[in-house]
Amino acid sequence: MGEPDAKGRRRAEMIPGSETIIECDAVIVAFGFQPNPPEWFKDFDIQVNDWNGVIASDKSLYPFQTTNPKIFSGGDMVRGSSLVVEAIAEGRAAGEGILDFLDV
Known about the structure:
This protein is mainly alpha-helical and 104 residues long. Helix content is 26%, strand content 4%. It has a two-stranded antiparallel sheet with strand order 1-2. Strand 1 (56-57) and strand 2 form a beta hairpin.
């Protein structure tokens, strides 16, 4: 964060050369209030319920694992519009499930 302005507020500043490129197969944008599953979900057997929420269990061996065992989901995509702290907690639980699934 930059130096405080006259009111004491700091603003984010760009740091040249700080960008990172991470190779991936897909990027899912995580914002909004209603699940909007992409078409490719069908190709990977990721099932959704009647309101398009991803079916993922928080009670299975691997928390937040979807109907495709290699894909995990949580937050608004699973439960619908809710508190960001719940999405954060589910993201952490899903991360633990992924680590257990990968046996690391």
